[in-house]
Each structure stands twice: as structure tokens, then as C-alpha cells.
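If you are new to this repository, start here. Below is one unmodified record pulled from the training split, so you can see the exact layout before writing a loader.
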Amino acid sequence: MGMTLANKITVCRILAVPFFIAAILDYSPQEDYHRFIALGIFLFAVISDLVDGYVARKWKQQTKAGAILDPLADKILLIFAFVFLYFINDRLPLVKFPAWLVVWAIGRDVILIFGVTIVSIFQGVFEIKPTKWGKATTFAEVMSVLAVLLQWQFLSIFWYIALILIIGSTIDYMRKGIKMLNHGEGL
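And here is the target side for that same chain:
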């Protein structure tokens, strides 16, 4: 099977990240429209994530490449969003990313990537299925980014929800990874 429509959508999502970063880095209070360009690109990426998943399931286009690229695209988008939005904190008028959330979000992803690498070294190829914890964490992280891009203070409640979910999902994935290493079972 060649590159499926779902894979193409995922690749477009990954290719959108540099444009998102450029819009964020070009932001200044005098050129506030860059924040809205970044918001549009971010929303494109979030919606295309939903679309590629739907297309993959609906038309049976689930592939090994998609199983790797889809979560990788999520990680790339969210890590860069957290880092670069934090980087421009001094330019944002109202809602600014707290350092503790950036550290926890990136720390979780580094732990997950490290864990997947270790499990793949010892267990070979395996399938990673997203958990409810993982999906909820991604949702809370997306809402956290939207809080900053939209400058809506009330959405900052998602920072605390994200923190709880980041910790919970990290523990859940670590538990599953250790179980897989000990017993050879899938995640």
C-alpha cells in the first residue's frame, strides 16, 4: 500500500509546524495578526488530526507509517507550541505559559519517547495504542495552547487539568511499558 490519504493528511500536519513556529516568532503586540495566523495553523493541525484518524478508520487506511507518524505529529506540534509560546511570553499581553507546564509537558514526551525506544530495543516492533489518559492529556494540552493563542484567561484552567493528566498518563504509560518489558505484552 502506498501513501494513503490519511498519511498525506498527517504529513501536511507535520509540514504545518514550521509555519506555525514562524507565525509565533513573528508575533509582536504591534503585529497581533501573527497570533491569529498561528491560531489558524494550529487549528488546521488539530482538525486535520481528527480528519486523518476518521479517514484511516472509515476507509481502512490504518498503516504502520500512520501508527508512527500520527502520534509523532501530535508530539511535534505540541512540543513546539509549548516551547515557542513560552519563548515569546514577554511579548504576550495577558495569558502567558507557565514554565512548570512547559517542563512537565516536554518531560512527559521525552519519557514516552525514551520508553518506546527502550521497549522497541528489547521487544522489537510493537503496536502502541493511545489510551484514554493519553487522549485526555492531548486534549488538555491543546486547550492550554488555545488559552495562550486566544488570550482567554478562563481557559488557563486547562493548565492544571493538563498537569494532572500529564502525570497520570506518564504513570499509566510507564506501568504499561514495564509490564511489556517484563511479560512481552503490547502497550
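Two things worth knowing about this chain: The mean pLDDT is 93. The longest helix spans residues 157-183.
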